[in-house]
């Protein structure tokens, strides 16, 4: 019997931001042919020669009742198709059915690590189409042929219906976050900055050792710096660029330390993809990377805990971009201005068993009204409508005002309110972005379990599937904020 403490759970298809989507709507599920060499590493897979391989990609999330309790979890299924594709023809795909199930075995012991099995099953029609010209008779009202006309149409060379299945694991555990920030003002002369240069009103921990923290970011005049631009060690930051920060520019280091429930630091890898805008295009690939700053390319979302995108130093709302392996697509109306620096930061967080933890980010965006108090009513709805979350429901928060990262002492966050405690208010119209980093959108991830009848149906339909079909994706539960 289902216990009263365990709400029912469901699994739904979502977009990259975690919003539920219609599986049959265009681009809800992405199909990519892997037959070409440049696509060979899609989802970490290399196709066999002379085989037609297809990658099927999308996002799913776990819900309890109507509340989403997990970040959007990417999936990627590789299928081999036997399909005739003559030269000059194109492949098209049409989803015929989509089902997603979620099931958990636990409920009684809240001290155990939480796991939910996620299973996807779908049917798709694949078509091989080619453009053809047909000559057809033109008739009058008496059905007499008076001429012949040419029509352009598509001819289906071949088609096949195939079934795709995938098994994932949602896993959550408790993490703690510790945030500290070093701030100073450049004098236009020094290349190296020390603990003694710190502005003590904004923090007094100095420059931490990279070995003591999970990861760190350096900002100069609000611009996130490529890691090739500096050398960081305990108590010392040295810029390696030809030009040093100009007099009066702010120099900030944001240190983030993530610990597991045993107090051990999590293993975090921080990759930066750097590119320069040409002022026109809105799609960037591995070939556009500025290799003098790194050559890791654009990783797949399934390999990353979460992304941050900075354009000209400004943190971008998630709705402004989409990431696929090797591709960064901007969803903005206008392309970035020519020369704008584009940095895609990829955070990969793993536990002692080398399993990936996924995190979720949401940014509250507003324009300065000339005051110091901002509420849900000030939110720019085109970028999101979740308002200002309870800080206790996220790991930590970062505030950017006019693109500049703010020290924690400069603001207070409460549910529905952001209060700036600076002496001067931001200039009217200046962008304000408050980023929340967490895992669950609900106040508690709960301890859900599938009903007996649903579990019986799940086992009957999917018992033949071996798990895991894909590597397990560990996910964590949100603790209290560090700020």
In short:
With 483 residues, this protein is mostly beta strands. Among the domains are: 9-131 and 157-173 and 449-474, no CATH class; 361-438, no CATH class. Helices cover 2% and strands 45% of the residues.
Describe this protein with a few key phrases.
mainly beta; disordered N terminus; 483 residues; 1 helix; elongated
Using DSSP, what is the number of strands? 31
Radius of gyration: 26 Å
Mean pLDDT: 82
Shape: elongated
Percentage of residues in DSSP E strands? over 45%
Structural class: mainly beta
Q: What is the number of helices?
A: 1
- Low-pLDDT residue intervals, each spanning 5 or more residues: 1-6, 36-40, 45-50, 106-113, 440-451, 465-483
Distance between the termini: 42 Å
Helical content band: under 10%
Biggest sheet features: 5 strands, antiparallel
